[in-house]
Amino acid sequence: MTEATRAGFIALIGEPNAGKSTLLNRMVGAKVSIVTHKVQTTRARIRGVAMEGQAQLVFVDTPGLFRPRRRLDRAMVAAAWSGASDADIVVLLVEAHRGITEGVGAILDGLAERTGGAPVVLAINKIDRVKSDVLLGLTKDLNDRFAFEETFMISAEKGHGVDALRQWLAGKVPEGPWLYPEDQLADAPMRQIAAEITREKLTLRLHQELPYQMTVETENWEEQKDGSARIEQLIYVIRDGHKGIVLGAKGETIKAVGKAAREELAEFLGRKVHLFLQVKVRPGWLEDSERYSEMGLDFKDGNE
Question: Which stretches make up the KH type-2 domain (predicted)?
Fold first, then answer.
């Protein structure tokens, strides 16, 4: 008898920078979600698809859970909890070296009522940064606070423990037909993934200057006769001074960003890419409902 197929949605939740995007990319085996050292870089819930035996694991990468201050923050936190409540299994990532921070405590307090009864597993990440006795103590403290179905010790960056977690998840998702074609990595539209890749390069390049006050949209995507893709993107900033920062002296910053984004897009798509970037000042984009839809967020979720 052939083994039954299984499929399910798995939400990765945790504080900003806990390693959710790195784990998603490691599980899927490709770069689907942007990874930077800035907090709050994941805005939309990108779904990555991983195959493990006869099981299809559909990962929902949620924005980090934190105390929201602005409309965009509130919409991101609402998206994170909504991703958790819709999932078949929830994986909470906690950083080993940071332990139970105030933010982790707040997540633990909200877990029972906000996960819709789905099983929750604990993944203690970045285990290479602490000694084993610290890990054991943290595991006990976390399990005393919440009844986790299972605990995994992992390093998403180095790959330790990730296979064991993926195999466990594969055995737990419901029996049923696969939800996506076997060769599909992500269900976010390619235009959105392309915009995320450019935004990652901007965030890495600009450091602390204005990463959360800009957004990138793929305005035009044309397939060329030679098999290449021509992609035009708009970078929105909220004031004139920011435009100068994004462009850089003699346009050097935007050139470097464009080159890095084009190379990664070409690798991701497996073909040549012509990328054109334009910077526009749009003072009110943080209050513009259309921009939220583009990011896969609900504008109304940002209301006080």
Answer: 206-283
Residue 152, domain CATH? 3.40.50.300
The answer on whether 126 is annotated among ligand-binding residues is: yes
Is 143 annotated to bind a ligand? Reply is no
Q: Has 25 been labeled as part of a binding site? A: no
Q: What is the mean pLDDT of residues 141-149?
A: 93
The answer to whether 53 is a known ligand-binding residue is no
User: What is the pTM for the complete model shown?
Assistant: 0.62
Confidence of residue 41 (pLDDT cuts 50, 70, 90): very low
**63 among the known binding-site residues?**
yes
Q: What percent of the chain has pLDDT over 70?
A: 74
Residue type, 141: D
The answer on whether 64 is annotated among ligand-binding residues is yes
The answer to whether 96 and 138 are in contact (CB under 8 A) is yes
Give tens-digit pLDDT for 277-297: 999 988 877 677 766 666 666
- Other beta carbons less than 10 A from residue 245's beta carbon: 16
Does 85 carry a binding-site annotation? Answer: no
Domain end among 102, 137, 172: 172
Beta strand spans in 62-164 (E) = 89-95, 120-125, 151-153
